[in-house]
Amino acid sequence: MGLNSKIKSLIFAGCSIVTIGALAGFANSKQSEKICKKVSINIDNEYNNYFIGDKEVRGLLTREGERKLEGLPHRSIDLKNLEKRIEANKFVKDAEVYRGLDGNVHVHVKQNRPIARIIRPDQDVYIDVEGNILPLSDRYTARVIPITRSALTQSLDREFFQDSTGQAYISLLQFIENDQFWKAQIAQMHIDGRGKVSFLPQVGEHAIEFGKPAEVETKFRKLMIFYKEVLPVVGWDKYKRVNVEYEDQIICE
Which N-terminal stretch is annotated as signal sequence (predicted)? Predict the structure, then answer.
């Protein structure tokens, strides 16, 4: 290829780049001028949570109707700011706000999922799967395990569930949440002043003394043996106390 041919190729390539850039800029300019005519809201309801609905999300987007998005050009809509505004809501785990090719705004919201509820005179809140504290909602009451605690137990706040001690309780709750049998059978969880756990079941008159939230699978495996091999023989109301705290033994009284 001669020198002139190389120069022509470079000139052509340069012109192509400039043309593409100009077209992209023009398209982006045109897109930014498009008016938002509609706001579409999708709320992920994978776990049948109803803590937040379209009305609440729309209120967060528009500052309770003070600044509607419909009628605004795209350049006047700060998508990232809208995402942050929605995610500031305690019941929102994640939010995505984006513009469609038609210029309209699309919102996708993923809700937080509570797995337990702490109930005391001085504290009535939910805990999510990551140990975050969630407030109660006037809109919806989640059907989760209620947790009571001794007055001697330290406050079960966000800081408690973020350290290694608190995370053990979260792991215990997650195990129950992910097991269909125990999720249906466990009616209440109690934490005493020494940090030991006990359960009240849905069926049966016995209390389950679980001990510290360690060796969780092993303890539930022992408890399942008790449920399958002992209770069907002696009756569900035979015992008032079942202890699986200690290694290689089940204590029934």
Answer: 1-24
- Read out DSSP for 83-110? HHHHHTSTTEEEEEEEE-TTS-EEEEEE
Quote the tokens at residue 9: 């190729």
pLDDT at 30 (0 to 100): 54
**Size of the chain, expressed as the number of residues it contains:** 253
What is the C-alpha separation between 123 and 62, in angstroms, rounded?
32
- Give residue 15's identity as a one-letter amino acid code: C
d(CA 122, CA 192): 16
Q: Determine the Cα–Cα distance for residues 185 and 180; give it in Å rounded to an integer.
A: 9
Query: In which element (H, E) is residue 114 found?
Result: strand 114-120
* Shared fold status for 39-111 and 114-252: no
Six token digits for residue 253 = 């009284």
d(CA 89, CA 107): 15
Decide the pairing of beta strands 105-111 and 133-134. Answer: unpaired
Superfamily of domain 114-252: Cell division protein FtsQ/DivIB (3.40.50.11690)
Q: Which fold has domain 39-111?
A: Ubiquitin-like (UB roll) (3.10.20)
What pLDDT, in 10s, does the model give residues 49-98? 889 999 999 999 988 888 888 988 888 889 999 999 999 999 999 999 99
Q: Where are the domains of the chain?
A: 39-111, 114-252
